[in-house]
Amino acid sequence: MLKVGSSLLAGFADQAGGGLDPRYAAGLARFIAEARAQQREVVLVSSGAVAAGRSRIEAGGNGLVLRQALASLGQASLIAFWQGLSPVPVAQVLLTHDDLRNRRRYLNARASLRELLRLGALPVINENDTVAVDELKLGDNDNLAAAVASLVDADLLLIATDIGGLYSGHPQRDPSARPIPQVAVVTPELLDAASGGAGALGTGGMRTKLEAAAKAATAGIATALFCGRDAEVVAALGEGRLHGTLVAARSDRLRARKQWLRHAPASGCLRIDAGAATALHDRGASLLPGGVVAAEGEFRRGDVVELRGVGDAVLGRGLVQYNAGEVRRIAGRHSRDIEALIGFRYGESVVHRDDLVLLDRASEPSQSSNGDAGPGAVTELPKEVLP
Predict the structure, then answer these.
(1) Per-residue pLDDT tens listing for the chain (387 residues)
(2) What CATH number does the domain containing 134 carry?
(3) Same domain (yes/no): 304, 330
(4) Which GO terms describe its biological process (predicted)?
């Protein structure tokens, strides 16, 4: 997961209205391409719509309603900007925090992002500024990036800034300020020390980046803060080296998720055949409709369900992608028949491997095992950070 702020994209940084400039974005685009070449999936959260919109129309002022209109004007330009730097198709995804608080919309967004990654596209996410009044007013793309990192089960959140990470003081005002290579915990004192204004074109300063890192940490995701204006720093990322600040994850993401799935109340049960049970255990696969024998209970999409085999033993638990009635209609059928049977499809699996925990063995399906494609991201970087 990579978040890029408007201060790295806007042209003529000292003069509002300069549109979008590829001077720094080109290096970040190369990093994305290199990560994808290494079989790492990347989701991009990008600001810059307001700056792009301001270059298309003469409009003085900086009021909230005006910024909403400018964001609407500039969104198409922002996507075209990234498409011009990307060798793969770019997909626009507009989200608000409400999309991530509402369970149904959360699951729909997650399914769409997974499908885009499976198709080989680069999802470019931005806040839906035209309707997200509070988010635009607060400049919350940093925190949105943390929420989306959790949504796609990212291994690492990268936040590109216009300075080299976190310092002991303001590097432009304090000559004695020293870089801080690692942060174990984001404390209230650290947040207070990081408070300060953002650039003329940006809305989030270092405090919002640390807030985002703290939220990602609680989800088991480390955050790397680095200078997106330094070509050497950006190039080093592709080699697994961070010149910046690493905010550590507070817990193991997969372990925390598995523990929750183990103990969350189940709303129903899926009976699966022997072939499906073997695929789950031996290949780390998702549960496909062809392996489902029956659905018991009344559950909704996103509920936790138990997986039982031929006997009555519980083999696993997971989040179901379809409600009970839909599962009954697609049970035993091929994934390609889902849309013909129920009129739509959220994906080809009934329970995705990322949302599954097996109860009768110590090891769990690996994110990189053979099976249905699921979100992955940079994993080596946190292990090879340079001070």
Answers:
(1) 999 988 899 865 444 446 899 999 999 999 999 999 999 999 999 988 888 888 888 777 777 788 888 888 999 999 999 999 999 999 999 987 777 767 678 888 888 999 999 999 999 998 886 666 554 443 468 888 998 998 888 999 999 998 888 888 777 777 887 888 999 999 888 888 777 554 444 444 788 899 999 988 888 899 999 999 999 999 999 888 999 999 999 766 666 667 677 777 889 999 999 999 999 988 989 999 999 999 999 999 988 999 998 777 889 999 999 999 999 999 999 999 999 999 999 889 999 988 899 986 434 443 333 343 222 223 345 443 333
(2) 3.40.1160.10
(3) yes
(4) L-proline biosynthetic process
| 339 CB-near residues (< 8 Å, 6+ apart) | 345
Provide the domain count of the chain.
2
Q: Is 207 annotated as a binding residue?
A: yes
1 known member of a binding site = no
- Judge whether 17 is annotated as a binding position: no
Does 3 belong to an annotated binding site? yes
371 labeled binding residue: no
Residue 375 tokens read as 């979100």
Binding site annotation covers 162? Answer: yes
Assess whether 270 and 231 both reside in one domain: no
One domain for residues 290 and 321: yes
> Is 218 one of the annotated binding-site residues?
no
- Where a domain ends, among 200, 234, 251? 251
Known binding residue 199? Answer is no
Residue that finishes a domain, picked among 196, 221, 251: 251
> Is 204 marked within a binding site?
yes
The reply to whether 144 and 25 lie within a common domain is: yes
Is 203 flagged in the annotation as binding? yes
Asked if residue 323 belongs to a known ligand binding site, the reply is no
CATH of the domain at 275: 2.30.130.10
